[in-house]
Amino acid sequence: MHKNIHTILGCDKNYNDSKIVVFGAPFDGTTSYRPGARFASSAIRNESYSIETYSPYQDKDLEDIYVFDGGDLELPFGNVQKVLEKIEKYVFKIIKDDKIPLMIGGEHLVTLGAVQGIVKKYKNLHIIHFDAHADLRDEYLGEKLSHATVIRRCWDLVGDDKIFQFGIRSGCREEIYWGKMHVKTCFFNFDNLNLIVERLKDKPVYLTVDLDVLDTSVFPGTGTPEAGGVTFNELLHALKKVSKLNIVGLDITELSPPLDITGASTALACKLLRELLLLIYK
What we know:
Elements: E1 20-25, H1 40-47, E2 54-55, E3 60-61, E4 67-72, H2 80-96, E5 100-105, H3 110-118, E6 126-130, H4 150-158, E7 163-168, H5 173-182, E8 184-187, H6 193-199, E9 204-210, H7 232-242, E10 246-253, H8 264-280
Parallel strand pairs: 1-4, 1-5, 5-10, 6-7, 6-9, 7-8, 9-10
Antiparallel strand pairs: 2-3
Helix pairs in contact: 1-8, 2-3, 3-4, 7-8
């Protein structure tokens, strides 16, 4: 765990001193529509210098907290199982050292590797999932491991009534119907988030944010865009509520920088990352 030479703005502290570890998982090997999410973590690292370390939303500054940037994992394309194993091993090292991992995807399947590492320590893990897509298929085009099946595979690990989805507005009929029996879903928005936050008080929680939960008008740079999403301010307000919980790990996924030549989607992701770091730092 050596300091990365090129760090995300404000995330340049030593590993031993840090409470949060940021790292990239540059993988989009199962992307079914438009690839490019593998470039997200490096783009965020480069473009983070366009934002301030200070957040006027929270009156906090990244310069005042201890965050370590571990750089990007070297992940083998063409071997999905090996990718997940590498992420799992890295995340488990972080939580074993009593730190919080914040992973930057990559496609959403990388979340499974992180959850596999976290459940080794936190057996009663609950998952909060912000997304446009349910990701609850049991298989997609014959594959069990896919960005379209990632939350179903996480359910394999944590079981019924442990996964809470928000912002969902897309999915096949079978997965939506299956989800009604096994997970808790709030379609289109964050309306009942307060109730879930109260319910999960004192429980270990993993937060996964697929950035396509945002509306395409503010976040076009993603592999599978879905109209009808939330605004940046709505997402930030929801994250403030979730940050009150015992967040033991989290990720942001599905930024695809090549798909937004304006760079606005990457700039949004950088700002959201800053707010997340300041929110979960205890």
